[in-house]
Amino acid sequence: MNPISADLDALALQIKDWGREFGFAHIGISPASNDAHAQRLREWLAKQYHGDMTYMAEREGLRGEPAELHSGTIRVISARMDYLPDAENMDAVLGNPNKAYISRYALGRDYHKLIRKRLSQLAEKISAVAGGHHRAFVDSAPVLERGFAEQAGLGWIGKNSMLINSKAGSWFFLGEIYTDLPLPLDPPQEAGHCGSCRACLDDCPTGAIVAPYQVDARRCISYLTIELKTSIPEELRPLMGNRVFGCDDCQLVCPWNKFAQATAEADFSPRHQLDNSDLIELFLWDEETFLKNTEGSAIRRIGYQRWLRNLAVGIGNASASSAAISALKQQRPSAESMALEHIDWAIGQLQGRSRATISKANSSDV
């Protein structure tokens, strides 16, 4: 065996050992090219499924050309970190219309900061031992992360467009290191393990999974509550239920998630009881409280007005009560025009249901 190849094989193994020391559950290495996924992205963009995420189209070319983003890149090191908390009450919260459901990934510390730091430390170790040029990414640049992770053997792309691992499900984050070292490649997992299952398509609250492996972001609750900066389409609001920041339904029903691993990262544990809070309680936060309680959290990125917008929709879908209507009216002075529109919509929804209930009760008495 070529001594250089032997050294690179040993380095690849060492990188995986270092990755485990930094808390990553799986490290894989792929080539820095992925024409199939780049073509799928172009087709997805052509259908306008990206909605208002104009940056997806503006930087589309860089996703398929890693060397354009980081000169000299010939390999992508993909890393997986599990985030599911040990104790879970997801179904109970979703089943209670007066509770606020927040996507599990956002309950603890912002993963971008934690994983980027760990990947940067891993890149520094590689550089110290083998030289080369490396750059870490965590959902912060135009990277085909799921495509590269699939090529590196971390899983396969499921019908919900999530990466699924046969031993860990899909409750995990991904990060990458672009490198100019010619490291040995890992074999991809065999694709197609979703079989005839349609659980994610059939259970998507808004019908955003329009076909196997195709998600129309314009209907996706994660897009509507996080990425969308304007009003949520009125016809979709009732379908959102109590999901106020992201949505996990397609993961909750995925059979492969029975193998999901609980996270070992304390920073991913829920903060401020956000895994089990009432809609009204969160809605009545003033902006100062919002900023304080979302410090270091991915939730802060949407800002206070979108926080009010999302919670107003949740309250509008919740049980009609005088307390809910009072809370909505109490926050009207704090709301800017976009949030105010959703607050008034919610008041109308609750008042309409209250009138319907009274009318039904009166009819029963006749």
TrEMBL record:
It is found in: Cytoplasm. Cob(II)alamin binds at R63, D139, N160, L163, L174, S222, C247, D248. [4Fe-4S] cluster 2 binds at C204, C220, C247, C250. It comes from the Bacteria. Its EC number is 1.17.99.6. Binds 2 [4Fe-4S] clusters per monomer. GO terms for molecular function: 4 iron, 4 sulfur cluster binding; cobalamin binding; epoxyqueuosine reductase activity; metal ion binding. Pathway: tRNA modification; tRNA-queuosine biosynthesis. InterPro entries: 4Fe4S_Fe-S-bd, 4Fe4S_Fe_S_CS, QueG, QueG_DUF1730. Catalyzes the conversion of epoxyqueuosine (oQ) to queuosine (Q), which is a hypermodified base found in the wobble positions of tRNA(Asp), tRNA(Asn), tRNA(His) and tRNA(Tyr). Monomer. This is Epoxyqueuosine reductase. It comes from Zhongshania antarctica. The lineage of its organism: Bacteria, Pseudomonadati, Pseudomonadota, Gammaproteobacteria, Cellvibrionales.
